[in-house]
Design a protein that fits this description.
By secondary structure, the protein is α/β, with parallel strands linked by helices. The chain is built from 6 helices and 6 strands; from the N terminus they run E-H-E-E-H-E-H-E-H-E-H-H.
Length: 195
C-alpha cells in the first residue's frame, strides 16, 4: 500500500455526491430514498489498482452555490485529487463545472492534483439536459477526464475512481542518465577525433 490519498468531491447541491460515495464505498445506497443536505463528511475507501490496494480519503463537501461555485480554501490546501460532479438532468450544475475547475486551478496549493468530472444520473434519459458530447468537449479543453455515471450501476462509479487513484499514486518520473559504458565510448570517440 502506498500513500494515503485525499480526494475532494464537489459540485452543486442535489447532484448526488453523497449517494455516489455511499454506493462506491459501501454498495448500499438505495435509489429514490429521501436526500439530506450534506455539510461535510469523510469516507475512507480501499481502492484496488494495478499496483495494489490504495487507501483513499474522500471529502464529501456541502453543495456549492450555483452563482459562486468556489470551494472553501481549506479543501484546496491538502487535496491530491478532485472529483467534480454534475447532474446530467440539470444544465446549471454542469455550467458551474467550468468556474469550479478554474477556481481550483487558481487557488490550490498542490499543483500536481488530479481532476476528473462525473456526470451523474446518466440513467435518467428522459430528463437529460447535458449531452455527453458537449460535456466531453469541455472536458477535453480543460484536460479533465470525464465519465457519465449512475448510482444504480456501481461499476460505472468504480472505473473512474480506480483511474483517479492510479493517477494519484503513480511513482514520480525519475530522471534517466546514459549508461556508464555509453558515456565512456562517447568520450573515447571524441578523443580519437582530436588526434
Amino acid at each position: 500500500m502506498g500513500k494515503n490519498c485525499k480526494v475532494v468531491v464537489c459540485g452543486q447541491t442535489a447532484v448526488g455526491k453523497t449517494a455516489l460515495l455511499e454506493q462506491l464505498i459501501h454498495g448500499d445506497h438505495i435509489v429514490g430514498q429521501p436526500m439530506f443536505s450534506t455539510i461535510e463528511d469523510i469516507y475512507v475507501g480501499q481502492i484496488e489498482t494495478d499496483r495494489g490496494v490504495e487507501r483513499v480519503h474522500f471529502y464529501d463537501t456541502a453543495g456549492l452555490d450555483p452563482m459562486k461555485p468556489e470551494l472553501p480554501k481549506q479543501y484546496l490546501s491538502f487535496a491530491d485529487g478532485f472529483v467534480l460532479v454534475y447532474d446530467v438532468t440539470n444544465e446549471k450544475s454542469f455550467q458551474s463545472m467550468d468556474k469550479l475547475k478554474k477556481s481550483i486551478e487558481k487557488h490550490r496549493e498542490k499543483k500536481e492534483a488530479v481532476i476528473i468530472s462525473l456526470g451523474n444520473k446518466c440513467d435518467m434519459k428522459e430528463g437529460k439536459q447535458v449531452e455527453f458530447n458537449a460535456a466531453n468537449k469541455w472536458a477535453q479543453g480543460e484536460k479533465v477526464r470525464l465519465w457519465e455515471v449512475s448510482v444504480s450501476n456501481r461499476q460505472s462509479l468504480v472505473d473512474p475512481i480506480v483511474w483517479l487513484t492510479t493517477k494519484m499514486t503513480q511513482p514520480p518520473n525519475r530522471p534517466t542518465f546514459p549508461a556508464f559504458g555509453a558515456s565512456r565510448r562517447q568520450k573515447a570517440s571524441s578523443n580519437s577525433e582530436l588526434s
